[in-house]
Specification:
Elements: H1 2-80, H2 86-111
Helix pairs in contact: 1-2
């Protein structure tokens, strides 16, 4: 009796799988045009985002240059007045400018 149940189960399982395949094949063929449209949209988005990263990279380098110039004036002012912490301040401003430049390079390397 148990062998008959196993055979019957196998038959029903096979029929169920075949039925699911029959139902899914038309759906999959209908989705191919949607997949092509999605692929085109993804490629377009990728190219547009790549342009944005180039712009962001250039903006970060410009901000780093501005930070470096401002830091240079502040450090020169402190150094001229004889402040003993001028070297620490110089290291901090230089580190900030270097960090901004490194972040730009890092973003460009990760996303492109």
């Amino acid at each position: 009796m148990k062998k008959n149940k196993n055979k019957l189960f196998k038959i029903y399982a096979t029929l169920l799988v075949a039925f699911c395949i029959v139902l899914l094949v038309p759906e999959l063929s209908a989705q191919t045009s949607g997949i092509a449209k999605a692929k085109t949209a993804l490629n377009t988005t990728t190219s547009e985002v790549s342009g944005l990263y180039d712009t962001a990279y250039k903006a970060l380098l410009a901000i780093a240059a501005i930070v470096g110039i401002i830091g240079g004036f502040i450090v020169y002012s402190k150094w001229s007045s004889g402040d003993p912490n001028a070297t620490k301040l110089a290291a901090a401003w230089f580190g900030a400018a270097l960090f901004l430049a490194a972040v730009g390079v890092f973003i460009k390397a990760i996303f492109l």
